[in-house]
Amino acid sequence: MIILEKPYVSDFLVDTIKKNAFVALKTPLAKEFLTDDFLIDESDTNKLENELLYSNSENAINWVLANFKSKKISEYIKICKDKILFRETLKSIYPDFYFKKVLLSEIELINPAELNFPLILKPSVGFLSFGVYPIKNEIEWNNVILKLKNEIENYKGVFPENVVNFDEFIIEEMIEGEEFALDAYYDENGEAIILNIFKHPFFDDNDVSDRVYYTSSEIIKDNLEEFKEMLDKIGKCCGFKNFPFHIELRANQKKVVPIEINPLRFCGWCITDIAYFAWGINVYEYYFKKVKPNWSKILSNVDDAYYYFTMADIPSDIKKDDIKNIDYNAYLKNIKNPLEIRKINPNNNPVFAIVFAKTNSMDEIKNLLKLNMKKFIVF
């Protein structure tokens, strides 16, 4: 069963549901996209023979936790969404990893001289980059505390508490290495099946945005085996089975360390659809039909271009009610070969567009990272 929720449902996902006659929960949003032929009432969900669940958004987590309390999927969600519990569960794999829980009310009372810098401060329950700060030293720590208050005020109430909760934070060590993101699922035997691998570039050391992710045949070939080995270890440690997820990690020459796992979904905002543009993979079909990508065959038939998606993020210091329009024409001049453009309402979302594109130049991707998004916003 698929659960459709805000913030965004792609036409590709809706068409996939219709094409395959997949069942979707009858939510108010689902009724906007699907007829009753594809919908199931909440009261009938306990009759489903196939217990595979997927949602395009973590906004569905509240419903799953309330309606599947006794099922394994609820345990999996709790392990993933509580970053403290997640680190504690993986201690046998990463025994030396430093982390510490702290309440929002206690952050200002912390003596930064007692912390192990560099570190990351982030909500224990979080989504995207809200409230996430890399901090190198005591001076940066004091500056971040001031910024954090403003960000919390700006985004409090935008997402449910099971998706983003600013009451509890985790302080953890800065993981060295390149950052990646994966879309995958654990099958009925607990084996990890990888559907997407992206690199996550940053403008500089202080950048924690999700503005650009990119993939290529080289990225898949170079990392598939090592990343699968890590995922299989995590799956065994947590007991994951029949479970879709999106994971962010960092890798260096010595080790691969997970940053976090996002449960019940692949890459948010339906950005996981890029697998279809790049590899011809429909990730929703692969999950529900239990298909494993034949990566050797797939990669033998593709070019060496970069496929990427970019999120046109709205700076956190801008009040969304002040936005009158977006100059999409000016923004799109920075993308030479867009494959699909998805315009997003900027007045009630943290982004104004999502674009899938193809390029042979890393310069195009680097340019997107440094764009001042304010110049495309009309006040």
Please specify the SSE layout and strand pairing.
Blueprint: E1 2-3, H1 11-20, E2 24-25, H2 28-33, E3 39-40, E4 54-55, H3 61-67, H4 72-81, H5 83-89, E5 99-103, H6 104-107, E6 119-125, E7 133-135, H7 138-155, E8 165-173, E9 178-186, E10 192-199, E11 212-215, H8 217-238, E12 243-251, E13 256-263, H9 274-279, H10 283-288, H11 295-300, E14 306-313, E15 325-326, H12 328-332, E16 338-343, E17 351-359, H13 362-370, E18 377-378
Parallel strand pairs: 1-4, 2-3
Antiparallel strand pairs: 5-8, 6-7, 6-8, 9-10, 9-12, 11-14, 12-13, 14-17, 15-18, 16-17
What's the shape?
A: globular
Under CATH, the topology of the largest domain can be stated as: D-amino Acid Aminotransferase, Chain A, domain 1
Name of the CATH superfamily of the largest domain:
ATP-grasp fold, B domain
The CATH class of the largest domain, by name, is Alpha Beta
Count of the separate structural domains? 3
Strand arrangement within the widest β-sheet reads: 5-8-6-7
Task: Report low-confidence residues grouped into runs of 5 or more.
Answer: none
What is the beta-strand fraction? 25-35%
Average pLDDT number? 92
**Rg, Å, rounded:** 20 Å
Structural class: alpha+beta
Instruction: Classify the helix fraction into a percent range.
Output: 25-40%
The main β sheet shows up as: 4 strands, antiparallel
Oligomer: single chain
Q: How far is the N terminus from the C terminus?
A: 42 Å
Query: Per CATH, which architecture of the largest domain?
Result: 2-Layer Sandwich
Q: What's the number of extended β-strand segments? A: 18
Can you count the helices? Answer: 13
